[in-house]
Amino acid sequence: MDIKSMKNYLYWLYCQFELITCSYLMEPWEKLLFYSFNITMLVMVLYIAYIFVPVHITMAFQFFLHLFGNQHENTVSIVK
Amino acid sequence: MERPERAGAALGAQPRANGCSGAAHGALRNGYVRGLAAPDTQLNHIVHNGGLYKRPFNEAFEETPMLVAVLTYVGYGVLTLFGYLRDFMRQWKIEKCQNATEREEQKDFVPLYQDFENFYNRNLYMRIRDSWNRPICSVPGAKVDMMERVSHDYNWTFTYTGRVIKDIINMGSYNYLGFAQKAGTCQEAAAKVLSQYGAGVCSTRQEMGNLDKHEELEKLVARFLGVESAMAYGMGFATNSMNIPALVGKGCLILSDELNHASLVLGARLSGATIRIFKHNNMQSLEKLLKDAIVHGQPRTRRPWKKILILVEGIYSMEGSIVRLPEVIALKKKYKSYLYLDEAHSIGALGPSGRGVVEYFGLSPEDVDVMMGTFTKSFGAAGGYIGGKKELIDYLRTYSHSAVYATSLSPPVVEQIITSMKCIMGEDGTNVARVQQLAENTRYFRRRLKEMGFIIYGNEDSPVVPLMLYMPAKIGAFGREMLKRNIGVVVVGFPATPIIESRARFCLSAAHTKEMLDTALKEINEVGDLLQLKYSRHRLVPLLDRPFDETTYEETED
Ligand SMILES: Cc1ncc(COP(=O)(O)O)c(C=O)c1O
């Protein structure tokens, strides 16, 4: 897919988004508000994901490690 | 599909002349099968009810896809939130308030503009208002000229640029048979009558306003409909709203379809009779109401109802559905009630020779007690009529408000009706087969739209074609995009339809040529791709299975 059709496709996606969320019908300042709200939310979600997901993944990883592999070692360490 | 016929043959029931099999055979109750929606008919969606129908009755309403419904609600949700924001800003004078508000001295009284309809008008309808009420400046034939207008304040006010958008293909007028013309035999005849009689009559039918033209018209209408007698009125809306009160009154029961036109609703309310509403075109619902009415009688007193009147329309102009007349007539006969049929859209547009829904089903006009219709649609004129037994019409002549108080029809209009009706009947020698042309156009247009993958409502023979849009932004976008491509369409939203079932409604005409339809279809296809309107998954449900969440009936008691 070359750049031009990619651009067209993105524009089409944007149109669909506008139609579905009705921002197509909004006045420019409403659009601005709506988009800044949306973008803020999106950025926040991404940021939160960036902060927390690695932590959760490590925790989950350790949990499974604990469950299957290193159980013995751990119990030993507690007993000790 | 064959099942009922075989059952009928086995039981030896003879179908009567009007196509209703007798109520004698027990297996089928009164000759119709309840919801023959067996799994095998699910896809086929053809509902044949016993021997009642002489022709296939293909009527389908595809279910709203779940995703589309959810997204539609999302759209309305966003708009509603912004509506509250705007209302807030108007209240605190951050934004200039352009809508109607209470005056200063009314401030402490009951608020006038707080209900949902006002909220909707202010905050949702106003954003897409440019798709409605466009002024036209030529005869609304197959092509029409429109005045260009712009709005500089987001649809609160419009200004005319002075330019005219020429030759827009008109898919919006109820010009079924193409009689809205500014030239041709009808126009010539009307012009002649105008120079002979003038335009005004200045009196009512009962006093001095009775011309020979009116008598001629009524005889012709009666002959056209195949009824004993008929009467013509100056306005279709008033025909309904003034004649129903003359026919029924207190102590009578009106059973009305939930999608009936405002004129029927108004007439029913004015009559003072009790009104009960059955689900759209749903015969189980109607039968239940009839049964209840007979069994229980009037509320409190338990006296039997004086009269039971069923109000239905031939073609429903928002759904494009055709009334299940054979079943309605069977029920009416079984429960000995009366039937009032409003043929506003179906007269001229249905049936092999344009005589409406009665002819379409091959029934006898005698089975319908009151045949009402208008001259506004197929005949390209104005006014309405009522046809029926001679006693009925004589009674209405004396007692109906629109006969006693309303000025009679203008003679040129009468002449337009007479000429166009004669043309439909093929009596003036210029029979151009308009009715067949309309039927062909209808079939072609509906078939092509279905193939493209749009969700189309209604009966396959109905010239009213609703195309579902669903989302609020698409209502505005569709109207604008189509006008950009020189095609005039009607878009419909709340409150004329349920809030998520917004649609565009095409009305076909015999005046549309194949080229015009092809152009229109090409553009619709393009806009459909652009706006992603091709929702259809080709899973159709017959009307009987259509879910309705409204209550079965409401009662007006005083
Ligand atoms: C079913 C029905 N009845 C009556 C009328 C009223 O007719 P008229 O426009 O002639 O007043 C209409 C008009 O839209 C209609 O659709």
TrEMBL record, chain A:
Keyword Nucleotide-binding: no
Gene Ontology biological-process entries: ceramide biosynthetic process; endoplasmic reticulum organization
Keywords, alphabetical: Endoplasmic reticulum, Lipid metabolism, Membrane, Sphingolipid metabolism, Transferase, Transmembrane, Transmembrane helix
The gene coding this protein: Sptssb_0
Pathway involvement of the protein, from the record: Lipid metabolism; sphingolipid metabolism; Sphingolipid metabolism
GO cellular component: endoplasmic reticulum membrane; serine palmitoyltransferase complex
Membrane topology: Multi-pass membrane protein
Organism, as annotated: Ciccaba nigrolineata
Organism superkingdom: Eukaryota
SUBUNIT field: Component of the serine palmitoyltransferase (SPT) complex, which is composed of SPTLC1, SPTLC2 or SPTLC3 and SPTSSA or SPTSSB. The heterodimer consisting of SPTLC1 and SPTLC2/SPTLC3 forms the catalytic core of the enzyme, while SPTSSA or SPTSSB subunits determine substrate specificity. SPT also interacts with ORMDL proteins, especially ORMDL3, which negatively regulate SPT activity in the presence of ceramides.
TM region positions: 32-53
Biological role: Component of the serine palmitoyltransferase multisubunit enzyme (SPT) that catalyzes the initial and rate-limiting step in sphingolipid biosynthesis by condensing L-serine and activated acyl-CoA (most commonly palmitoyl-CoA) to form long-chain bases. The SPT complex is composed of SPTLC1, SPTLC2 or SPTLC3 and SPTSSA or SPTSSB. Within this complex, the heterodimer consisting of SPTLC1 and SPTLC2/SPTLC3 forms the catalytic core. Within the SPT complex, SPTSSB stimulates the catalytic activity and plays a role in substrate specificity.
Lineage of producing organism: Eukaryota, Metazoa, Chordata, Craniata, Vertebrata
GO MF annotation list: serine C-palmitoyltransferase activity
Intracellular or extracellular location(s): Endoplasmic reticulum membrane
Family from the record: Belongs to the SPTSS family. SPTSSB subfamily.
Name under which the protein is recorded: Serine palmitoyltransferase small subunit B
From TrEMBL, chain B:
Biological processes per GO annotation: ceramide biosynthetic process; sphingosine biosynthetic process
Enzyme Commission no: 2.3.1.50
SUPFAM superfamilies for the chain: PLP-dependent transferases (SSF53383)
Localization terms from the record: Endoplasmic reticulum membrane
Keywords per UniProt: Acyltransferase, Endoplasmic reticulum, Lipid metabolism, Membrane, Pyridoxal phosphate, Sphingolipid metabolism, Transferase, Transmembrane, Transmembrane helix
Membrane topology: Single-pass membrane protein
Residue ranges occupied by any Aminotransferase class I/classII large domain in the UniProt entry: 166-524
Domain of life: Eukaryota
Gene3D superfamilies: Aspartate Aminotransferase, domain 1, Type I PLP-dependent aspartate aminotransferase-like (Major domain)
Sequence segments annotated as region (Disordered): 1-20
Protein family per UniProt: Belongs to the class-II pyridoxal-phosphate-dependent aminotransferase family.
Name of the protein this chain belongs to: serine C-palmitoyltransferase
Organism: Strix occidentalis caurina
